[in-house]
Write a structure and sequence with these properties.
5 helices, two-stranded antiparallel ribbon, alpha+beta
């Protein structure tokens, strides 16, 4: 009887502990490969999970929508680096965009042509409470790339 009680208690406990869904994967810091490039953001892990955005950042975690993995290399790295910038600089979108563009230029994975391709995908992004619209973001990103 005591064994049945323990088994029932263990099952009840497991039912209330959040379990990772089959649709999400956690990648430990330094283990993420994006288009053959080891993407790293210090001690920050990455979760690949469907969300209502292309990517997001929370303290200690970057979340990438699985569709990021189907993008061209420069765009995969841009979105990852943008979210890494939030780990460093906080919630400012303009700062995250600019830092991602500058890092891409310095590291050689973001050329002017690749930035133009990224601009095509972002052009019609609507603005919201934390993001300016896509057209304004592109203008600012072009200026960061030109520096």
């Amino acid at each position: 009887m005591f064994k049945n009680f323990l088994a029932g208690a263990a099952a009840a406990l497991l039912a209330v502990i959040p379990q990772p869904s089959a649709a999400q994967t956690v990648v430990l810091p330094g283990a993420l490969l994006l288009a053959g490039y080891r993407a790293t953001c210090g001690p920050v892990d990455t979760m690949i999970q469907p969300i209502n955005d292309i990517a997001a950042a929370y303290k200690g975690r970057i979340i990438l929508h699985p569709r990021v993995l189907d993008l061209p290399r420069a765009q995969q790295l841009f979105w990852y680096t943008h979210e890494c910038a939030h780990q460093i600089f906080g919630p400012g979108e303009a700062a995250a965009d600019c830092w991602a563009v500058q890092q891409g230029k310095i590291q050689g994975w973001l050329t002017g042509d690749e930035l133009a391709k990224l601009a095509v995908t972002m052009r019609y992004y609507p603005g919201d409470a934390t993001h300016t619209d896509g057209a304004a973001r592109i203008v600012a990103m072009d200026a960061c790339f030109a520096r």
